[in-house]
Amino acid sequence: MRFVTAPIILSSVLLVAACANKPLHDLDARRNTPDEFLVLPNKPLEQPESYAALPQPTPGGSNRTDRNPQAEAIVALGGRPSGVGVPASDGALVTAASRHGVQGDIRETLTAEDTKRRKRAGILANIKLFPVDRYAETYEREALDPQDVSTAYRRAGVPTPSSPPKGE
Questions:
Q1: Residue 81 in this model has a pLDDT that exceeds 60
Q2: Is residue 15 part of a domain?
Q3: Measured on CA atoms in the order 95, 101, 107, 108, is the torsion positive or negative?
Q4: Do 27 and 134 form a contact (C-beta atoms < 8 A)?
Q5: Signal sequence: where (predicted)?
Q6: CA gyration radius for the chain?
Q7: What CA–CA distance (Å, rounded) separates 128 from 148?
Q8: Against a cut of 0.90, is the pTM above it?
Q9: What angle do CA 59, 65, 66 make, to 5 degrees?
Q10: Is the pLDDT of residue 156 over 90?
Q11: What are phi and psi of 149, to 5 degrees?
Q12: Residue 142: which domain range?
């Protein structure tokens, strides 16, 4: 009797595990849920040294506990958020990084290209009998084969670490 129930239990566990949700791979923009990346937690409240020295409240303006993600990123990368422009010590880096030009409308361009690519896939591409990983399906052509890349680097004479055998 145990030999009959074990495969049934094992197959039911595998079926339930196969139905796992992969939220970061969900590319469907038609969701009705809020975007969790738009929520910024406030800084912790602090007691000021002097209540008389507090600035006047500005309705609709910024608050002392509001976060400034751009300034926080600059500080985390070792910069000064109050600085204006590029420091002289980083001028060569900025010049080298922008030597091929800077495209100001990159987001709009990528959105238009993505829309055109999805339309080219056709209407029937959205009809699936079983749930599929849209992320893997969308970007499978851009995936690199590690064996091919490793072989190309070795042929070019670049020292490479050993890679796992094919099939692993």
A1: yes
A2: no
A3: positive
A4: yes
A5: 1-17
A6: 26
A7: 32
A8: no
A9: 70
A10: yes
A11: -65, -45
A12: 128-156
